[in-house]
Amino acid sequence: MMEGKNRWVYHAVAFLVVAIWGSTFVFTKLLLLSGLSAAQIFTLRFIIAYVLLLTFSLTQKPFRLFAASLKDELLMVALGISGGSLYFLTENSAMIYTTTTNTSLIVCLCPLFAALLISMFYESERLQSIQIAGTLMAAIGVVVVVLNGHFVLHLSPLGDTLAFAACLCWAVYSLLMIPAGQHYDTVFITRKVFFYGLLSMIPYYLLRPGFPSMDLVFRPDILANLLFLGCVASMLCFVAWNWVIKKLGALTVTNYVYFNPVTTVLFAWLVLSEKITIYFILGTVLILTGMYLAEKKKHG
Fold first, then answer.
1. Which residues, including other chains, have CB under 8 Å from residue 220's CB and lie 6 or more apart?
2. Nearest-CA neighbor of 148 among 285, 281, 290, 271?
3. What is the largest CA-CA distance in the chain?
4. Helices 237-248 & 186-199 angle (0-180, nearest 10)
5. How large a percentage of the chain has pLDDT more than 70?
6. Cα separation, 213 vs 296, whole angstroms
7. How far apart are alpha carbons 167 and 90 in whole angstroms?
8. Contact call for residues 96 and 163 (beta carbons, < 8 A)
9. Residue of 176, 191, 291, 182 lying closest to 238 (CA atoms)
10. Please, which residues have CB within 8 angstroms of residue 236's CB and are 6 or more apart in sequence?
11. Burial 250-283 (b: 16+ CB within 10 A, else e)
12. CA 58 centroid distance within chain
């Protein structure tokens, strides 16, 4: 009985994380309009998150600086690149070359990529027929919500390829979290993701040097947005996401990415007074039903 109650807590945390991530487009957009680049926003939010996590970790005994082996440390490097620098760079760069709709649509379908990739390495995680039906239904729901009745896609080979690369990065991150979560605690893993995510950004800055002035960074409105992205959307959300992956499994948690466009539309409705359409309602029903079916086999 207690385990059943705890599962609802884990699901609630996963939903809350996706809801917060769905709202970050507003804060990121404001920072972009203020003159910061996508790479600079990523770097600043990860610096904030890493400093906070490192400070917290230093108060814990014993403090672990490195993983137990070189192989495990390289696993942390891969997590930092796939879930950090490479994911954010490919996703943000995709929006330069293709539409936001295309990017959202492709990236939000990453649970399909994750399910396929994880099933290739873990036989116990392979989906059965009802789970396949559920995840496909949720994917269709995402398409309905994102397209919102406008069934016109403007194909852009470079932009769409970058969006698919971002999708694959998150699928790889989900796969690698399985062995990492079996041997290390959530805070350690998340701290490593931020550290190697930042470290792997150095080649980018060698190719494209330039960083915003401190006057701009410490402007009250910009600092407030950065603190939200760094403290809440990065530090707290990544810790919570990695935690529920350990509790519910990578496939179950990754399915919550399907709900990302729903929270984005709801946030736009609340903040920007955008309209809720019948397509949004239909798509949301498909996503919720699909997610229920995808979870039903294991625990139904």
1. none
2. 281
3. 56
4. 130
5. 91
6. 51
7. 9
8. no
9. 191
10. none
11. bbbbbbbbbbbbbbbbbbbeeeeeeeeeebbeeb
12. 26
How many residues appear in the chain?
A: 300
Amino acid at 163: A
Span 150-191, pLDDT tens digits: 665 566 788 888 888 998 999 999 999 999 999 999 999 999
- CA atoms of 40 and 47, how far apart (whole Å): 10
Place of tokens 């996703």: 91
Q: What pLDDT, on the 0 to 100 scale, is given for residue 299?
A: 47
In the 8-state DSSP scheme, what is residue 125? G
The pair phi, psi for residue 91, each rounded to 5°, is -65, -50
Coil vs helix vs strand at 154: coil
Distance of CA 101 to CAs 94, 147, 265, Å?
11, 7, 12
pTM of the predicted protein model:
0.83
Output the DSSP codes for 210-268: ----HHHHTSHHHHHHHHIIIIIIIIIHHHHHHHHHHHH-HHHHHGGGGGHHHHHHHHH
| pLDDT tens profile 118-128 | 888 887 777 77
| Neighbour tally for 55: CB within 10 Å | 9
pLDDT tens sequence across 226-274:
999 999 999 999 999 999 998 988 888 888 888 877 877 777 677 666 6
Which of 30-39, 62-71, 280-289 holds the top average pLDDT? 62-71
CA dist., res. 7 & res. 245, Å (int) = 12
The pairs formed by 273-280 with CB atoms below 8 angstroms and a separation of 24 or more are 277/148, 277/149, 278/149, 279/144, 279/145, 279/147, 279/148, 279/149, 280/145, 280/148
What's the pLDDT score for residue 300? 44
User: CA–CA separation, 137 vs 154, rounded Å?
Assistant: 24
Mean pLDDT of 51-77: 93
